[in-house]
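tool_call predict_complex ligand=N-(5'-phosphopyridoxyl)-D-alanine
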Amino acid sequence: MNPVAYVNGSYLPLSEAKVSVLDRGFLFADGIYEVSAVLDGKLIDNDAHLARLQRSVGEIALALPEPIARIKEIQQEIIRRSGLVDGMVYIEVTRGAGPRDFAFPKEATPTLVMFPMEKDIVNAPSAKTGIAVITVPDIRWERRDIKSIGLLAQVLAKQAAAEAGCQEAWMVQDGVITEGGSSSVFILTPDHVLLTRPNSNAILPGCTRKAVLALADEQKLRIEERAFTVAEALAAQEAFITSASAFVQPVVRIDGQPVAGGKPGPIAARLREIYIGFARATAE
Ligand code: PDD
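tool_result ok
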């Protein structure tokens, strides 16, 4: 792949793509992002990601500099120009460059950046082996439903996970798991109920979460949306995470203790397979 980025109307090699040091994304994390998966050069569940982008910018009173239909064209153009086959397209929109005042500038033009990332999500070895997670306190702000570029808490959580030899951090608040550093969390209870936390300001409404819940429902799985504890996850039949960049990933260790017998379970494997089928069938 020859990664080509889009920056405010121009396409250029990713290594040459730049924004101002006065950009409010850089100075204040005053911006929103989205990540859509790409399989065989096509975008996966992209309308859901663009709808969430629109909602997120609305929640911070930021107007998109281009209509959604145009953003979709730019995503596709990035894929085409970069020769991206499998991976993700990253989108970031910020309130633009201006004097460093906390309050919104009167006349800033939003910054819109997009670039490709290569990743073979379907054939990730961790889908077969499962991943290990650690739990960390959730120290984030109270509007986690907004896909803010302010990700320092997740950066620190995922760095702690990496240092512990783990692939994800599960954030815990008030005794229950909120979500992963960059993923939604599911467990299958001993009596075979698929559990995930309901959407609220406490978590990002995952697009993959939503699709997987719909597919699980079609499979006639019993589903309950409620928060659960680390102890419940450790006692679960299965645990897994979902995200655009990982699809469905089994979790086999939590804080060094085996979960689900330390092996990926059949329901996570089945939902992963079904999700990939859904992704390919609806890719555009
Ligand atoms: N992260 N929760 C958080 C905190 C996330 O950052 C993400 C996605 C998810 C899953 O959402 P979705 O299924 O829509 O990707 C849940 C992206 C992939 C990232 O930051 O790279």
